[in-house]
Design a protein that fits this description.
Elements: H1 3-23, H2 25-32, H3 45-67, H4 73-98, H5 103-124
Helix pairs in contact: 1-3, 1-5, 4-5
């Protein structure tokens, strides 16, 4: 496993998430029912733990890419988009449906899953 590729791909997914949720924080917070005053209560550990989760994800993606003989950033991008769209989004949708959350959360989070994993998948193929 190319650990550098995994670490950089995870960082790319994390950075895209920071930008995405910075842009979508208002609509996401409204849909999640989180008041702006509650926002500051999030532990900073969440940021590090989310990166660790992306490292695990990218390590597994790298293994899948190897088995699928993915060649080049364009194929990595498309495979990543597929993983986000066909694994991530349905899982989020089911979770949100059963917990009675608004569909807009699935739209916001699902868009990030598709874009983020697509970028991470492409980055894996740059190394």
């Amino acid at each position: 496993m190319e650990i550098v590729a995994v670490l950089v791909a995870a960082a790319a997914i994390w950075a895209i998430g920071a930008a995405w949720y910075g842009l979508m924080s208002g609509p996401w917070r409204d849909a999640a029912g989180i008041a702006p005053s509650e926002e500051s209560g999030m532990s900073r550990a969440v940021f590090g733990l989310s990166y660790a989760c992306f490292v695990l994800l990218c390590g597994f993606l790298q293994w899948i890419w190897y088995l699928a003989d993915v060649q080049g950033a364009a194929e990595g991008l498309m495979m990543g988009a597929g993983v986000g769209a066909f694994l991530g989004v349905p899982w989020m949708a089911v979770n949100n449906m059963y917990s009675g959350r608004p569909w807009v959360l699935t739209l916001i989070d699902g868009t990030y899953a598709v874009i983020g994993v697509a970028a991470g998948g492409a980055v894996l193929e740059l190394f």
